[in-house]
Design a protein that fits this description.
Layout lengths: L8 H6 L4 H20 L3 H7 L2 H25 L17 E9 L3 H12 L8 E5 L6 H10 L18 H6 L41 H14 L6 E11 L4 E7 L11 H5 L5 E10 L14 H5 L3 E3 L15 H9 L5 E4 L3 H18 L4 H4 L4 E5 L4 E2 L12 H9 L7 H8 L3 H11 L4 E2 L1 H4 L5 H6 L4 E4 L2 E10 L6 E9 L4 E4 L1 E4 L10 H11 L23 E3 L5 H4 L6 H18 L2
Parallel strand pairs: 1-2, 1-5, 2-3, 5-16, 6-15, 7-8, 7-15, 8-11, 9-10
Antiparallel strand pairs: 3-4, 4-5, 12-13, 13-14
Helix pairs in contact: 2-4, 5-21
Length: about 575
């Protein structure tokens, strides 16, 4: 049994009473505290208790309770709003302390941390990005996949405070909402994955945020730190590092006919540019270009029969080279056959979105109606379940490690310790490849009545474990209106032959070093060090590249941060390291 605390006047008076009386009265005193604070029924309570006990209660318990309630608001820290920077007008030659190249997840979070935690004036920062608004590529890609909930949990977001997203979504730090009351069929194993409620801000498993709410929170972070005023729409064409600064040439305005992966010859064609002299530059360029299958041709893409879910034209933010007429036709009709190629979470998201759209359009009345549109999922390997694409140990930042250490734990995970202690870049790359498990789906996405496994068993998705061997175009005549209809026939390695109206590639990004000619020039002209094995930058613990005042984040920081460098967790890890460098650079 628990003892009554000895830190109150109540305890000194209670010592005179038998123990069993104390055990009976303690719950009563607790109840009296609750009803007293709420102002309900105190008179009735007092009339039923002997005066001596009431006096003890009033002396020892009540003043402390009331004082704590009354003083709580005054003791809460008041968050000072971040003042917007003055109207920024950059001339042809501008000096700037911090210049961030890339306005995606990593670039936005690092800017927020520099301002919100590092105390750097917002006017001292610029974010160069080709898009009209920050995070535009992120929003376009995630919307194209049909994602409903993120894979990462609520602790990973773009604000400074780890609790920010939970507070924004109204979460109390635990599971939000109630599980579905609808009875499920017999479970296949002993793991209990509850069905998600579609209107919840967070999922029931790992408190994963809903995409729409996450994006709203991202917008609030941009507004909170006035990052949109720091955004310069343009493309970095060249960089020249020197001991005290970095000269950055930027072609201002909308995106040209190339992105960060353009050729050096393309860059030289542009003569109108602005020059920034930056004391520090952060490269947050994202991933390599999307991966296309070998059998895909330019004709397939231009005519709208094939498009990659993650490949968007920077000018229009529609699928790259996607024929507009074909796109409008696909959006208008829901009875056309579609093939989704890929075995990971992006393919699963898209297949389930197609199922939902078909059900909403057709009313989901009978099995025959549901099967009027064929949705094919083609993957080379079996569908594999995994909650995260890397172990959670890789996502722990220094603050989390310190909390574990303060609680009596070891602190930094052994995985991170082994990685940091390895001096061989080839071995580090091998560890990254081993620890990052691509091509998996979360249990919540696969199981349950709204999961992919259920859709496959119910015939709403035709799954083929195979590769595409050949493809050809066929012409069919519509039996309703007699129109000639051009379609694509795919021959699969499993022996099946399917005919579809559109192919959606969910094959992810390439594994090459991102940055194209921009990074190539830094390596070849200025000799910044890279790994001989994979070609990625060799940086120090603060992510500084050869002490050149150039810092890296995202995929470029993999050899220092490990397999989670590309994720939202990696953005927080990178910001933490760069912030340490910013503190050391202060006079």
């Amino acid at each position: 049994m628990s003892r009554i605390p000895k830190t109150s006047a109540f305890h000194s008076r209670a010592q005179l009473l038998p123990k069993y009386v104390i055990y009976l009265l303690v719950p009563l005193f607790i109840w009296m505290s609750c009803v007293t604070i709420t102002g309900m029924g105190r008179e009735l309570c007092v009339s039923m208790i002997p005066r001596g006990f009431v006096a003890a209660y009033n002396t020892a318990v009540l003043p402390t309770r009331i004082r704590s309630v009354r003083e709580a608001p005054a003791n809460r820290p008041v968050k000072k709003p971040h003042n917007p920077p003055p109207r920024l007008v950059d001339g042809p030659n501008t000096h700037i302390p911090w210049l961030i190249v890339g306005g995606g997840i990593h670039g936005v979070h690092i800017a927020a941390r520099l301002i919100g935690e590092g105390g750097i004036n917002a006017s001292s920062i610029r974010i160069i990005d080709t898009n009209k608004s920050l995070l535009q590529t992120w929003k376009s890609r995630t919307a194209a996949t049909g994602m409903e909930y993120l894979r990462s949990s609520a602790g990973f977001h773009l604000d400074v405070d780890e609790r920010s997203l939970r507070q924004f979504g109204g979460s109390n730090g635990g599971v939000r909402g109630k599980p579905s009351k609808k009875k499920r069929k017999k479970k296949t194993d002993n793991r209990n994955i509850r069905t998600l409620k579609r209107n919840d801000a967070f999922s029931h498993d790992y408190e994963r945020p809903k995409l729409a709410m996450f994006n709203q929170h991202c917008d609030s972070v941009v507004a909170k730190y006035h990052l949109d005023q720091l955004h310069v729409q343009g493309t970095v064409t060249s960089m020249e590092p020197s001991p005290n600064h970095v000269t950055v040439e930027v072609m201002r305005g909308g995106p040209p006919n190339y992105d960060f992966g353009g050729t050096e010859q393309d860059m030289r064609k542009e003569t109108h540019s602005y020059s920034y002299t930056a004391q520090n530059v952060i490269l947050a360029l994202g991933n390599d270009v999307p991966t296309y299958a070998d059998w895909v041709t330019d004709e397939d893409i231009e005519e709208g029969f094939v498009h990659h879910l993650l490949d968007f034209d920077p000018n229009t933010h529609s699928p790259r080279n996607h024929n507009r007429e074909m796109s409008v036709r696909n959006e208008r009709t829901f009875d056309e056959d579609v093939a989704v190629i890929g075995g990971g979470i992006t393919a699963a998201h898209k297949a389930l979105e197609l199922v939902r759209h078909s059900a909403a359009k057709q009313g989901q009345t009978t099995s025959a109606t549901r099967n009027s549109r064929r949705i094919h999922l083609i993957s080379r390997h079996p569908i594999k379940e995994q909650q995260f694409d890397t172990h959670q140990d890789w996502m722990m930042d220094l603050a989390a490690c310190q909390r574990i250490r303060d609680g009596g734990g070891e602190g930094r995970p052994q995985r991170q310790e082994r990685f940091a202690g390895c001096s061989c870049w080839k071995e580090r790359r091998s560890m990254i490849a081993q620890e990052r498990v691509a091509g998996t789906v979360t249990p919540a996405l696969y199981r349950g009545e709204q999961g992919l496994g259920w859709a496959i068993e119910g015939g709403e998705v035709d799954w083929h474990q195979a590769e595409v061997l050949t493809k050809r175009y066929v012409h069919e005549t519509d039996t309703v209106n007699g129109h000639d209809h051009k379609r694509m026939e795919l021959t699969l390695s499993c022996g099946n032959v399917i005919t579809v109206d559109e192919v959606l590639l969910a094959t992810g990004f390439g594994k090459k070093r991102p940055g194209g000619a921009l990074i190539n020039n830094l390596v070849e002209t200025f000799g910044l060090r890279v790994s001989d094995f994979c070609g990625f930058p060799i940086v120090d613990e603060h992510l500084s590249w050869d002490n050149s005042r150039i810092y890296v984040a995202g995929a470029l920081a993999e050899l220092e941060l490990g397999p989670s460098a590309r994720n939202i967790a990696g953005a927080r890890l990178a910001a933490e390291r760069i912030l340490q460098a910013a503190h050391e650079l202060r006079p």
